[in-house]
Structure formats: C-alpha cells, structure tokens
Amino acid sequence: MPFSRSVLGSSKLSSQSTIESVNEEMEETFCRRDFSFSLPESLLPDEKRKKGSVKEQMTQVLLKGIKDILITETDTISLLDIPPTLVSVNADDADVIIERNKQYSEVCRNRGNNEKYVERAMQTLNGATKNKQIQNNLMLMVDTATIVSAFDMYAPPEQEVMVYSPEMKQTNDTETVVDSRRSPERSLSLTSSASTVISSCSLKDVETVGSSLNTQVDFELIMTSDKFQYSLLLMERTVLRNNFQSQLAAYRKLPLLEDPDRLVKPKEGEQSEAETSCSPALQCLWVFRCELSRGCRVSSMAWNKKNPDLLAVGYGETDYRNHEQGLVCCWSIKNPTWPERIINCDSAVTTVDFSSNSPGQLAVGMSDGSIAIHNVQSADNKSPFISSRECAKRHLGPVWQLRWNQQELSFTGEEKVESLYSVGADGRICKWFVINGGLDCTDLMKLKKMNNTLRKTEQNKPEKTAECVLSVLTPGLCFDFHPSDSNIYLTGTWEGNIHKCSCSNGHQFLETYRKHFCPVNCITWCPLHPDVFLSCSSDSTIQLWKQDCINPLLSFTSNQPVAEVRWSPKHATVFGAVNEERLEIWDLNSSFLDPVIVQPAAPGLKMTSLLFASLTDCVVVGDSDGQVTAYQLQNLHVGESSQGDVIQGLLHSASPKELQETLM
Amino acid sequence: MADVEETLKRIEGHKGVIGTIIVNSEGLPIRTTLDNSTTSLYARLLRSFTTLARSAVRDVDPQNDLTFVRIRSKKQEILVAPENNYLLVVIQNPSE
C-alpha cells in the first residue's frame, strides 16, 4: 500500500509519545519549513548573511537554552460531518428513502469484489490522549435471593402449552393444534415450547373454529368427569347464594352488609321499617319447591344429625290418588331450588328419619308397610338400599313413624348401639336389624285396645283398669323415646290413649295417659325438661303432660285437628303446632289460651308437617302441594333464666289445685 | 351426562345469570350462551387471570390450590370454577 505523506509530515505514531517530544518534532518540522518558505521576521536578516553559521548557532542554542513554548488549542477542525437524516416510516417519501438505503447497502456489499473500488490506507494524526479521572459515589450492592418452589419448576404433563402464532389464523388448521397437544414430542412448527402461560396475555386471541370433532370429544370428556359435576354444584350454590343472600343471612343470624352498588331503593323501604312493631311474627325466608314434588303432600321431614343444613322430606300420596309412587328429597339450605338427592320409592312415604351413628343413612317408612334404608352420601341413585319387603314380619299397614334410637348396652354402658324402631298401623312396635342384606324385626310391644266396648259407663271414672276385653290391636300413630333414658318411650294410639312403655317389658304398659278421644297424632318429649311431654290429636287439642301425672297439666285448644306438635330446641316454653289451615306458635311465657303467632296457610293449601331448626330461630313447614316453607321467628320474647326452671315455674303457677296435690 | 346438562340448564335459568361459558384447556370455548366475540374475550382474559391467581395461591403455600374465583364488579359478578382441563365461567348480575 503506497503511503503518501500528509501535509503535516510524518509523525511518530508511538502511543506513549509525550507532549514534549511531539512538540519537538513539530518544532523541527516547522523549522525546516521555515527554512524553505517564508521565515518569521526576526530571523530573516540573520539568515541571509550567515547561512552556514546559522545552522551551528541554532544547534548550540538548542542544546543549552530553555525555550518557552506556548501551546494553544486550535479550534476543532471538522473534516467531514454529515449528520444522519431521520425520516419517519409513515412519511410520504419514505419508500424512496428505503429504496435508496437498499441500494446503498447493495453497493456496500458489492464493493469487496468490484474492481471499481480500491482499498487504500490513510494515516491520520491522532490527537494526544488525555487521562481524566473522576470520582463517583459508591455503588451500593444488595444481595437478593428468591426461593423457587417445586411448582414453578415443575410443569405437569397435562398442563397445556399455549399455541399461538400469527399464522394460525391463516392456516385454520385445528388438527395440528390438537395433535400437538396430544403428542408433545412431535415438534411442529406452530408450537412454541418456550412460551409460558402467563405471557399468553399479550398474544392475539384465537378465533373459535366451528364445532369440529375434537372439541366435541373434549366437551364430553369434560362433562362426564367428576370434577366438573362438583364445579357445577359449587357454581349453582354460589349463584343461588347471591340471589338468596339476605334470606340466608337471616337464617344464619348474620348481619347483612349493605351492597354499595345496589340501586338505591325508593323511600318505601324506610316507611315500612318504621311500621314494623316488636310483636312476634313469622317472616317467610324461602320455599323448597321443585317440579318433582308438585302436587305431593309432605308427610314428614327430618334434619340430618351431622349436617344441620340437610333436610330430608318425605312426600306421601296426593289427595286424589292412593298408593302413588313415593318420593324422598334431600334438600340443602344452600340450594332451595333443586334437591341434592332424589329417591324414588315404591309407595307413598309416611315417615323419614336420619340415623345418628351413620349420618348418611336415611330410613324411610312407607304406606305399604315396608321400610327401606337408603344411603344418601353417594350421589348415584342406584346404590343398593336395604328394604324390608321380603321380611315376613313386616308391618301390614302403613308405617306411621320410624325412629333411630341409641341404646346403651347394660354391661359396658359406653357403647351406643343404634337400632331402628317403628310403629305401624297393625299395632306393633318393632325393632329392626339388618340380617343377610335385608331387614328383620322383633316385636317390642303390641298395642292392645284398651277401651272397653261399653265406653259410656266408664267414661266418668278417673282411672280405668287395664282390662283387655278384646285383644285386638289398635294402630299406633306415633311414638317418641325419652331424651335421656333410652329405654322408656311413649306411644300414642288410634284410640286416643298414650302409653308409656319400656323396651325391656314387652307385655305391659308402664303407664297409660288418657285424655284424648281422637287419634293421637304426635307425641314429643320436651328436650330441655326431662319429664314433660306434649301430645296433639285430631280432637283439636294439645295436652301438656308430666311424666308421673295421669292427667294433663295444661291443655291448649286449636280450631282444627292438629297434625303435628314440636318443641322448640332452644326455648323451653315455646312449641309449635300445625293443623290443616294454620301454623301456631305457642309461648307458655305469654299466654296459655292463645298462640303467640298464627300463620294462616295460603289459600288452597293445607299445612301438614312442622320442624324446628336446631341452631337458628327458624321453622320449616310442609304443605299439601309439596312445598316446604322456611319461616324465621322474630321478636319472640323469651326469658333469660335456665330453661328447666322456667318450665318448672310455669307448671307450678299454672297447675290447678288437683294437680298440686298429685305433684306432692 | 343428562343430569349434567340439566344442572347446566338450571344454572342458566337462575335469577340474574347473564351467561355461562365452558372453556377447554386450550382456551377454546366449547359451550357458551353468549355471542362469539364476548365469549372469546372472556375466555382469553379469564384464562390468564385464573392462572395468575392460582400461581399466587400456590406461591404462598405450595400445598394449597385454587378452587374458585369470584370477581365482583360494579355491574356484575364473574364466577369462575378453574380446573386443570377446563374453566367454568358464569356471569351473574346479583342486584337485579
């Protein structure tokens, strides 16, 4: 490569040239120049006279003296400065410029092989380097660490990698997408294995591609999985909870917070609030109803012992059809629109009861005398149940009441064996147990007719001798075990008598209580006071008895035959009764003559069944159209003292003289 | 299969429910009662949202898992039941 000397002459390219040496060089070059060209004025006359000695003088002076050299910085010489012009892509002449850029890059590329261009080196004068030191603030270093959980590193095989790419819209090819899901080892051009799912939020959306075969298969797979059914259950309950929020909050006695986004209701609400007085009232919360149960009469209800939100309702025959197929529905508080379980029975259901030992077992008694035990835990309706159809000793008439009862074995005193007891229209009280996949029973008691044929003459006597003229059995309609002593139970008969019996004595009644002259429909022990029980009958009366006393302590009259009576589980003085046309709530604290709350039935409906809810102030009432309504008791003024004392006090204050004698 | 359909229809018939969407594992809606554009919008957005929610829950406690997501907004409530291979979405207007 030929070198050409620049105008300024050669310069040492040593990287470590100091300022002085460069200046010396510069000086030399300048001197030489000055020789050949125009000199500075001071030297001009000397040089012309002494050409030869000037040279010598110069060298001596140079060696001895110290020359002061002034260094100034020249202005920056800009040899070539072409600032780049920037043009926006959207400008009008952008295309032209892009074209030119392309051409230029072509030229640059072709330069290497082109003869037109010759490479040539050029030497430039490098400016002196300067060292410049600056001082900086100390950079703070911080150590951070993070813990990565196994979940972050682990990508389970089912977790699908999102497949998105701009080409997808054009190819419209679902098969490849699905294939990549099914066999991830096949690397297709469309899959991007590095993309995480979170980054998919920046990706374009995929258009839905019709209903191709693969999505249909997907759909069925998903629909039949258990998880999906559970999700559906959750979803339905959540949706309903939103709808029923105020009612459920009232049921569970939770304060309801105001929803700030709810539309502001007009001022009618405020007015009605001012009008509500503090009198006891019933507020309707919701109604359990569905198409399945429409038209069927509710015959009995029972709460689950373990899950207090679960209510089993037995539907009996409708009014105009006998021996209709019976139905039992298990409703949950969380879903008042559709029952959790639906059990179809062979004949009309008369009674239901949940077991305490195994809370999933539901015993159902039917009007053809058979008893079935269903397991409500499995959602599958085809789970086998135990029935007493084949039992030879089964009830010949409708089973009027069933009870699970726990009995302590006398030896250990700790084991609680639970067995099923039933009372039927054939006058027998039986104890059932499971043998060989079926039910078998032993008779506990036979209810013999107590009243003589000549009733007229003996009606006035206060005590009757237990003479059995005819050993014909009378239908037993109800029975109830003593809450603390599981050996003792009371049973009410068609004749109107109430017998106290013991499990160990199957022949004799311990006691007989006579007052009703019509069939006794319901008997219930008071859960809070050990010796008190209530009975109701079709003669429109409710009687309050004490265990040791032959005659009732108090009696209450209603206007229609009373179907059911129940004690409140929380307040010892409150009980409820339901007859065909209304629901009555009695409070012994307030009045003996009239019920405290009366709720008439809707027109055309007859109320048939009643239950108190155990944890809250609510009652559920079943009626003849298959609806079960939940009411909340409001403003019942009940005292604070212990429940047993309250009853005791009442009894003492209310009992007539005759009873006071017997109490002594 | 039939009672699953029945349950779905019941949910869609409840008071205040605007629509239901079932999204499969790839983000494709396989059953919906809303129009296509809304459905695909919801499917895409909720998919990433539930994944974020799930990773948040599991980062706090790796043995925990997300079971349900409810997004309450001024006008409506979006209920999402997330699973590994599907998303069940119900949009409800509870204050009707």
Automatic annotation (TrEMBL), chain A:
<keyword id="KW-0969">Cilium</keyword>
<keyword id="KW-0677">Repeat</keyword>
<dbReference type="GO" id="GO:0045503">
    <property type="term" value="F:dynein light chain binding"/>
</dbReference>
<feature type="repeat" description="WD">
    <location>
        <begin position="513"/>
        <end position="546"/>
    </location>
</feature>
<dbReference type="Pfam" id="PF00400">
    <property type="entry name" value="WD40"/>
</dbReference>
<dbReference type="InterPro" id="IPR001680">
    <property type="entry name" value="WD40_rpt"/>
</dbReference>
<keyword id="KW-0963">Cytoplasm</keyword>
<dbReference type="InterPro" id="IPR050687">
    <property type="entry name" value="Dynein_IC"/>
</dbReference>
<keyword id="KW-0853">WD repeat</keyword>
<protein>
    <recommendedName>
        <fullName>Dynein axonemal intermediate chain 4</fullName>
    </recommendedName>
</protein>
<keyword id="KW-0282">Flagellum</keyword>
<dbReference type="InterPro" id="IPR015943">
    <property type="entry name" value="WD40/YVTN_repeat-like_dom_sf"/>
</dbReference>
<dbReference type="GO" id="GO:0005858">
    <property type="term" value="C:axonemal dynein complex"/>
</dbReference>
<dbReference type="GO" id="GO:0120293">
    <property type="term" value="C:dynein axonemal particle"/>
</dbReference>
<dbReference type="GO" id="GO:0003341">
    <property type="term" value="P:cilium movement"/>
</dbReference>
<dbReference type="GO" id="GO:0045504">
    <property type="term" value="F:dynein heavy chain binding"/>
</dbReference>
<keyword id="KW-0966">Cell projection</keyword>
<dbReference type="InterPro" id="IPR036322">
    <property type="entry name" value="WD40_repeat_dom_sf"/>
</dbReference>
<keyword id="KW-0206">Cytoskeleton</keyword>
